[in-house]
Write a structure and sequence with these properties.
Strand content: 5-15%
Structural class: alpha/beta
Number of helices: 12
Radius of gyration: 20 Å
Order of helices and strands: HEHEHEHEHEHHHHHHH
Helix content: 40-55%
Distance between the termini: 45 Å
Strand order of the largest sheet: 1-5-2-3-4
Largest sheet: 5 strands, parallel
Shape: elongated
Length: about 270
């Protein structure tokens, strides 16, 4: 796995260092900063999550992706609470890993003006110096996934499509929803309608024109849960009206507060 990842990243120009154990990885990470760690959960001398906890005693900003063929919900939640950028379950496609790291790298390059290298504790790693630390809590992380989904050029009919749009794995997106107490499919439908509301306001069209739903009964059910049934669906429905009427997410949910804050300070509003 180490050699395969190293070979796959060679054409990208990303600098890779490899460690076959937690002890070796910790020693290298303490010697010089790494921008991204790819950490295997089942290391020979320590779990990958314990490695991150140990490293954080010396290094404040530890950005990592957890890899494992033995993922459980508990392990995924633990990793996300530690601030994992993503969680990938083996076997995964090398293309999936390249795309994930690329999305992180490109995001960092947009905001930062220098390059770095990355590190994998059991596999390999890649990246550039982060522009910012991971979201401070699970609700904020979830809200960022929703915002990225709202920027999609197409209606996100599946969790897989939403995960691709958000730049995370399907597993990570699903567990992000569950971690904040929202059913993944409810979160997906919330994101779909919020995207339609935002874009309909900009494009001055009815929200349903931005939803890829051919069955009128399915569309009616979706809009009923969205709270958009009291009157014809106008182009002018506001985000706040949607938030007040929707039934996908509890209206006092912390994630909605983060969304309001982000939408107010961005060009979504």
């Amino acid at each position: 796995m180490c050699e395969l990842i190293q070979l796959a990243f060679k054409p990208t120009g990303v600098l890779i260092e490899i460690a076959a154990s937690a002890a070796a990885g910790l020693a290298r990470a303490r010697q010089s900063p790494f921008d991204l760690l790819l950490v295997d959960l089942m290391l020979p001398d320590m779990s990958g999550t314990d490695l991150v906890r140990t490293l954080r005693q010396d290094v404040a900003d530890v950005r990592f992706i957890l890899l494992s063929g033995f993922l459980t919900t508990a392990a995924t939640v633990d990793a996300m609470r530690l601030g994992a950028l993503d969680v990938l379950e083996k076997p995964f496609g090398i293309e999936e890993l390249l795309a994930l790291v690329s999305s992180i790298v490109e995001g960092d390059r947009t905001a930062a003006h220098h390059h770095g290298h990355a590190h994998d504790e059991d596999g390999a790693a890649a990246g550039t110096q982060p522009a910012s630390s991971p979201p401070g809590c699970a609700a904020e992380r979830w809200a960022l996934h929703v915002l990225k989904g709202c920027r999609s050029s197409a209606d996100l009919k599946t969790l897989q499509q939403w995960a691709l749009s958000a730049g995370v794995s399907y597993t990570s997106l699903r567990e992000s929803c569950r971690l904040v107490g929202i059913r993944p499919h409810d979160a997906r439908d919330f994101t779909r309608v919020l995207r339609a509301v935002i874009k309909s306001h900009r494009q001055q069209c009815a929200p349903e024109l931005l939803l890829d739903v051919s069955d009128s009964r399915t569309l009616a059910t979706l809009f009923e849960r969205a709270g958009i049934t009291a009157r014809p669906r106008p182009a002018g429905i506001t985000i706040e009206e949607f938030f007040a009427g929707q039934q996908f997410v509890p209206r006092q949910h912390t994630g909605l507060a983060f969304l309001r804050q982000r939408l107010t300070s961005s060009d979504h509003s």
